[in-house]
Amino acid sequence: MSILNEEEIKYETIIDVAKKMMIAARTAPKARGIDHLKIMMAESETIAIISQKMKEIGREINSPTFLRDAENITQSTALILIGTEIKTMGLKKCGLCGFPNCEAKEKHADIPCAFNTGDLGIAIGSAVSIAMDNRIDNRIMYTVGIAVKELELMGKETKIIYGIPLSATSKNPFFDRKHF
After folding, report:
1. Which of 32, 88, 95, 128 could pair with 102 as two cysteines, CB 3.0-4.6 Å apart?
2. What is the CATH number of domain 24-167?
3. Per residue in 87-104, pLDDT tens?
């Protein structure tokens, strides 16, 4: 007779779901079929490094949100990172970014293209739907993305980043959180 304890499979299950989330983000629809996304997964030591950076930012700007989220992600088994480069789509008429076309927008390299951010949002939605379907606790955090960007963990070209911590506990640690 064999008995498998839930605690024995929790880690591998979360990692398996995290990998599926990464694939869901990659295969999400992209404007004009052009992909500017970067998708990664962080674990243990890297989560600790990101958390530390978030604490530094929180103290520097006196932000309880960064401090709370920094503590919060240490309760995750894995952390999905999804970001985008800022690149135009080569359109002659659009204006969604505030400029009349891509040629005019390209003179302002750090102004996001609406399609890049739209693709990022769709990819994040696809990823978290996989977590939801598998009952893995998660939350989308911009604070993680700020720290990851400053640490350049996704490269200098990745300009907009979000983090999605993953956990499987009896109470979702990413909701009803304490404020510092």
Report:
1. 88
2. 3.40.109.10
3. 999 899 999 999 999 999
DSSP assignment letter at 117: H
Percent composition of the chain: helix, strand, coil (DSSP 3-state, to 5): 50, 15, 35
Q: Which amino acid is at 90?
A: G
pTM as predicted:
0.93
C-alpha 115: how far from chain center? 17
DSSP H/E element including 159: strand 158-167
Reported as a pLDDT band with limits 50, 70 and 90, residue 177 is low
DSSP string, 11-64: HHHHHHHHHHHHHHHHHS--GGG---EEEEEE-HHHHHHHHHHHHHHHHHHT-H
Residue 12 CB neighbour total at 10 angstroms: 10
Q: How far is CA 28 from CA 10, 16, 87, 130, 132, in A?
A: 27, 19, 18, 12, 16
How far apart CA 162 and CA 34 sit, in angstroms, is: 20
The single residue listed with the structure tokens 């490269």 is 155
Q: How far is CA 168 from CA 68, 136, 145, in A?
A: 19, 6, 22
